[in-house]
Amino acid sequence: MSDDKKYIKGDKLKALYDQTLLCTSCGYCKSVCPAFKGTLWDHNTARSKMVLAYGLLQGDIPVDDSVVQSIFECTTCGDCMRRCPSNVKTVDVLMAARQELAGLHEVPETMELALENIEKHGNPQGEPASAREEFLPDEAKAKLRTGGDVLVFLGCVASNTDMKVTSAIFKILERAGVSYTTLGEKEPCCGFLNYLAGYDSDAFGKGLLEQIETLNPRPKMVVTPCPGCYRTLHHIYPENGVDLGLESKHILEFFDELIEKGDLTVTKKLEGNVLYHDPCDLGRHAEMYDEPRKLLSHFAEVKEFKFNRDKSHCCGGGGGLQSTNYDISSSMAKARLTEANELEGDFIVSACPACKSMFSNAASDFKKETGKKFKVRDLVEIVHKNTKGKES
Amino acid sequence: MSEEMFKELQELLGENFTTSTAARYAYSSDASIYRAMPDAVARPMNTEEVSKIVKLANKYKVPITPRGAGTGLCGAAVPIKGGITLDMQAMNKIKSITPENLFCIVEPGVIYDHLNNELKSAGYQFPGSPGSAEAANIGGMVSLNASGMRAIKYGATRDYVLGLEVVLPTGEIMKVGTHTLKNSSGYQLEKLFVGSEGTLGIITEVTLKIVALPKAVAAALVSFDKVEKAGQAISNIIAHPIIPSSMEIMDNTCITAANRGIDAGLPDVPAILIIEVDGPIEEVGREIRQVEEVCKASGATEIIVSDDKAVYGLWHEARKSVLPALGGYSPELKIVSLADDMGVPISRVAQAVIGFKEISDRNKVIIATYGHASDGNLHTKFLIDPSKEDDWKRAEKAVEEIYDLVLSLDGTVTGEHGVGMAKAPYMKKERATAIKTMKAIKDALDPNNIMNPGKMFEWESEHIMFSLRYPAEVNFDE
After folding, report:
1. Residue B190 located in a structural domain
2. pLDDT band for position B425 (50/70/90)?
3. How confident is the model at residue A1 (pLDDT cuts 50, 70, 90)?
4. Residue A195 falls inside a structural domain
5. Does B134 reach chain A within 8 Å, measured CB to CB?
6. What is the mean pLDDT of residues B253-267?
7. Is A130 on the interface with B (CB under 8 A)?
8. Between chains, do B132 and A62 touch, taking CB under 8 Å as contact?
9. Quick one: average pLDDT of B329-342?
10. Between chains, do B25 and A61 touch, taking CB under 8 Å as contact?
11. Which of A33, A128, B206, B223 is in the most buried spot, having the most CB atoms within 10 Å?
């Protein structure tokens, strides 16, 4: 960062100026903010981010490393917004602040690196594009970019870090006789990380739209196992004027339809206490609470976390925090496991590759520390292991 | 702050000492109307570190402003003279809970609700019940003598402080009070630090009396078509005699705000009372019926009674949400914390509420009134356009009139939030004969005046609208 003092332009935050004044600093958000709980520093609370946004907008404070760090030390889980009795749009203010910072190219280095990877390789992990096809089952490889009724948009996290989920998705689709296709190495990043970093969304969706136009027959629906991708495809693209010309669903909704239609049959139930964790991007941000529970209820009696649905605690993997402050991020996952342990949970099931990744890492430490072993699963894996198709 | 002191603090505290822009700006305000940047934020982990920080501050004559959760409403945690803000939130251990001794020992950064969650499993409570219970720290509560809706029956924080560990402004560590329920052992210095707002030292440990949780609770939501009738009902209940565990009053402005803010579903009437009784099951049943009878006789238009926590819990939630929810009352207006917690004799609550309404109308400022009617502690919140100097001026005039009214009713300018800066000139008026003694105590303990300087009786102006955290400057010379 340059030594010269930089100030934001204000064009993004200005529209939310009113929100910064609406915040009474009552502190209710402190009681739910995972970033505050993880650090106990006031500048990590939602209310302080409202204060910082005000200060940036008023030109009271310049943009420096500490401001960037504070604005980005947040999972954007949105629990503050849920708790706020003044209904302050805290996450909107935070995102506008990030857009202001991004406009000055002031984004944390680790996040910048991930964005560079997206630019160069099409994914934040920096994996070669071809890696998206490496772990696909042969059946899926045969249907790469062929067109079909359903386009499977795997997303970067599932494609590059969770081969179990990736493989399971296609096996389920084969089993159910679904006409599908997937993009493999041509699948672009949805742009959610760019969005979280505050970068302009002009280019959002265009890459995907171009790819969709190459498919013949053109899919009628796109499904994804990733809540971040789902939010982007289902909400952020339309908000930015991008129409993919097909229906978008989280893959769990589609799998539930397959069970309801009889294309998939449940073969067995899970044994043990099965807790469902609401991912923030699917829950608070997309308000999808009943659908995952309905799907999971085919396989188990769903046990609830004390803090669930709109009050769910973040796994720590949201908002890009994992890349900007892994320590806080992982402490959140551990805290959630502690809650699960108090409920004597055996399975922790989510519908998000990032949640699964966070919990899997935390579970490994948890086992070392306490001896307790959790089975961390994505809903996709539950469906894969416990269903059969019509003819099988 | 000198380079030398900066280095010494950095060496002492490492990552727990910061002069970063983000931290200094975030710690420049609390829930009051003020903003002033500290030069640095220090976060001690134990009493020894607090002592070392204070010794350095005393050596270099740099101000220290202690801070808990930063939920205070009068600016006590705003470092108006700069210096170091001492964030006590990381000293958050519950050291012991001993129901057999009827006390617990906690560090100052323990959150009120966290403590009560722990006490609950032993069947006990610390019943202060501040509106900001989910965030407020015990240290801050002691410093401001905070309380809440249950003070009528259970008293204020002051009534629970059995002992304290305090770091004096010289850095010396002092133990005051005892680990016994009673003591007559010399000056009751532990009480001196209650309500001292960080001007006399830093509280590093609190021994708090605890009381058993009630066996049963019931509550009534009572509607009135006139504020006067609600006021009369309050007096009639107390005179009956019934001592409820809480009795909250909300005017229509607050009712509307709570309904909009959290969809509270409160009746849209000129005033409501939320009355709670607790105790043994038979007694609670009898008392809530008596409350019903008295309210009916006092002209209540509707009475809903419940012993279901889900039901009366929502009423309390609605009441607690009033302060922040008022922020959403009107798109143009914002809530600012002014004249926020006056106390009057219980029999004068209605007179005060009606007077506040007249002051509101006269000065053309929307003033919402609610509060702990049963102990005479009333809250007002102002809704103004905080970018307009004229709004602030009209608000200050209304504040002055409210305090004049309260003092004429034999009341106090603050029942539970403290003085800080927002009530400083009025507190000086109220305690005119005691200021000299307060100052003598302050001088004796803090000769270099490093502890939270510029607050309470040290406030130099007759006005309170300075160093605002809002986009307006108020010029009183025009």
Report:
1. yes
2. very high
3. very low
4. yes
5. yes
6. 88
7. no
8. no
9. 88
10. yes
11. B206
- B-chain CB neighbours of A66 within 8 Å are 18, 20-23
What value does the mean pLDDT take over residues A136-157? 95
Q: For the domain that residue A74 is a member of, what is the CATH number?
A: 1.10.1060.10
Q: Is B262 on the interface with A (CB under 8 A)?
A: yes
Which residue in chain A has the smallest CA separation from B326? A86
The answer to whether position B463 is within a domain reads: no
CB contact under 8 A, A24 and B26: no
A60 touches chain B (CB under 8 A): yes
Instruction: Kindly state the percentage of chain B with pLDDT values over 90.
Output: 87
Using the 3D structure, point to which of A42, A75, A103 is the last residue of a domain.
A103
Answer whether residue A203 shows pLDDT above 80: no
Domain of residue A321 covers 262-388
Question: Is B118 within the bounds of a domain?
Answer: yes
* B26 at interface of A, judged by CB pairs closer than 8 A: yes
Task: Tell me if chain B has a CB within 8 Å of the CB of A307.
Answer: no
A67 touches chain B (CB under 8 A): yes
- B261/A contact by beta carbon, under 8 A: yes
CB pairs under 8 A between A and B: 115
Do B40 and B107 belong together in one domain? Answer: yes
**Confidence grade of residue A3 (pLDDT, cut at 50, 70, 90):** low
Q: Encode pLDDT of A346-355 as tens digits.
A: 999 999 999 9
User: Is the domain of B9 the same as that of B56?
Assistant: yes
B11-50 pLDDT per residue, tens = 999 999 999 999 999 999 999 999 999 999 999 999 999 9
Average of per-residue pLDDT values in chain A: 93
Question: Which residues of chain B neighbour A1 with C-beta distances below 8 Å?
Answer: none
Residue of chain A nearest B333, judged by CA positions: A22
Give the model's pLDDT for residue B417: 96
Mutate to test the interface with B, among A16, A22, A28 (most CBs of B within 10 A): A28
Partner-chain contact A31 B87, CB within 8 Å: no
The mean pLDDT of B115-126, rounded to a whole number, is 97
Q: What's the pLDDT at A87?
A: 87
Q: What is the pLDDT of residue A327?
A: 86
Number of domains composing chain A = 3
Q: Say what the pLDDT of residue A85 is.
A: 83
Can you give the residue range of the structural domain that contains B312? 216-319
Whole-number percent of chain B with pLDDT over 70: 99
Give per-residue pLDDT as tens, B199-217.
999 999 999 999 999 999 9
In the numeric block, the tokens 């809970």 are attached to B97
- Any CB–CB contact under 8 A between A53 and chain B? no
Distance from CA of A271 to the nearest CA of B (A): 31
What pLDDT is recorded for position A202? Answer: 62
Quick check: A8 contacting B, CB < 8 Å?
Answer: no
- Nearest CA to B252 out of B174, B400, B356 is that of B356
pLDDT of residue A2: 46
Q: Among all residues of chain A, which has the CA nearest to that of B69?
A: A27
Of A21, A42, A69, the CB nearest to B470: A21
Q: Which residues of B touch A52 (CB under 8 A)?
A: 22, 25-26
